[in-house]
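Submission checklist for the structure archive. All mandatory fields must be present; incomplete records are returned to the submitter.

[x] Identifier: RNA polymerase sigma factor SigK
[x] Organism: Streptomyces incarnatus
[x] Residue count: 197
[x] Sequence attached
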Amino acid sequence: MRGVHGRAGCGHREGARARADELLVLVADGDQRAFEELYALVSGPVYGLVRRVVRDPAQSEEVAQEVLLETWRSAARYDPGRGSALSWILTLAHRRAVDRVRSARAAGEREQREALRAGEPAFDQVAEEVEAGMEREWVRRCLRRLTDLQRQSVTLAYYDGYTYREVAERLSLPLGTVKTRMRDGLTRLRQCLGGAA
């Protein structure tokens, strides 16, 4: 669990929120570098929110990626007059996470009804567990390819929802070093996970 942060933490969060606002406007104009920075800035909070709703780690990662892709595609629809970029992105994340839960529930109920009619199991539990295990193993394998510092930084930010500054404090490193390692780590992780597709 994270400790309570003082005013400096609040000020940093406000700075990150304002930076996200600027970046999303640039992303709406097709600025890919701005999207990379925005991705690094919001991926942790997006995953954290989705994980609380969806619960399953593999599905949460998938939904978080869908949300970030949707952010890239629909950034032009963001209206700064109606709230912060982070709030807009987290609203997309919450909506998509809830949709995923409803969809999974509906599919499960449908399979159960069909299985009752056919008199057979609703789904192959073993195959589903094996597939989920393979996905988790692939992510672990990709994380192992990162340097220790990249892996620690990405894990703290992406999976635990820490900001750059909080990661720097936890690792006792300069903020610039953490940002560089995080960017390099995310790039390598995306390339590795892309090879899994």
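[x] Structure attached
Curator remark: Confidence is low (pLDDT under 50) at residues 1-8. The longest helix spans residues 85-118.
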